[in-house]
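Our platform keeps sequence and structure together, in a single record for each protein. Such a record has a labelled line for the sequence and another for the backbone structure tokens. The tokens are whole numbers drawn from a learned vocabulary of local backbone shapes. The remainder of this section carries one protein's record, kept here as part of the documentation:
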Amino acid sequence: MDKSAAPPQRSTRTRSLRQAFRQYDQRLLPREDAELTHVGPGTPCGEYLRRFWQPVAMSSEVFERPLALRILGEDLVVFRRGDGQVGLLDRHCSHRGTSLEFGRVEANGLRCCYHGWLYDVDGTILETPGEDDAGSMRGRVFHGAYPLHEFRGLIFAYMGPPEARPPFPHLDVYDLPGDRLVPYAIASPCNWLQVHENAVDPVHGVFLHTIIAGTQFSSQFAQVPLMEFHETPIGMFSVSTRRVDDRVWIRINDAILPNLMRYAYSWEEAERVSYFGRGSGTKWTVPVDDTHCRALGWRHFGTLSDPRGLGKETEVGLESVDFMGQTGGRPYHERQQAPGDYDAQVSQRPIALHAREHLVSSDGGVILLRRQLRAAIHQLSEGGTPPILERLSQGIVSTYTGDTIVRRPIRPGVDDKHTMRAVTADVLNVITDPANGEGELRRDTVARRLAMLFPA
């Protein structure tokens, strides 16, 4: 026997075995992050979300009959009065609690099916038929109601304190020349935050949308990008930078507090120079309750938002959008073979357990977003007003989402990552400059400045 041979590495193997097969030690699950995920009345996050206008339904859902809704843990009903005005009421009649989803829509309100009490859109009791002193109850009781604002095929509600109601905000992308906003709504059986965070996670596009399940959108997503995450006056954005031949592609997705996302063009292949394209969509992720949510927003169609013309307007609507993998409607075996966003998000559990996560550098967008939400929730809980409310109320709100593709060849002997980062910095300096103005003027100014800085 060769006595010089190394002895077996028993101690190393013992240590490794101590770390293997340890599910037994992890059986008991930690509590969910209630501060960010619980949304019912009186909860910190729920009260924060209620300070903003939230889309609650598509206009096309509210026509002849009342529509029962659950939003932020409250049971409500939305209806369209005979003159077209919409109302959002507590679902249960103030008389005996019958659900108003079974009521009858009339010219001036919604009438309960049980005893005929008639409610206006603001909760005023207009009639209490069958009562001798008909006016006494109407003067003493107001039914629960929330104000609504109907805009571009979506119905928005303000569910916060009446005295704190902000103006309805107007984003710059609502008025892009030649752009069409097509509304849609998709439900998911999971907490709102794990759906909302998706757009500021650039790496999921590499694997979920390309390498694992095959190319679902752009083939260029297979390249792991350089990533940056920046705070803005209205929230934050993620930046993904990729090299495509002699071009550098900078992709930006906005996260606008508290629960609005603007996402860039999903089918961009970066085949040609482009200056400040404006993205594929605008989407709110609205909590239904702690374990269910609903995405409501618009798909954008036009030369600035769909330059390759690959969008399909006919597939956009109720529980449908022209992006692969956004609903649970596909057969299970197909979802296993080629999972989409819906499968990755919903399968994180009804409420994702943040204490079980192991976040890494590429999760910088998720980390920043959660930190911003937590800070805003604390500020409101301590009696302050989140500054984002004031920002959203001042004129046209400038957003940052879009694709910019510029010509910048690889330079021999120069680290190309350094080149890509320098290009990204120059592009961001232009896009985020407040001196660009607002609205269409800003868009044209940004495009012109980028073209001067990076000639085609």
Remarks:
- The radius of gyration is 26 Å.
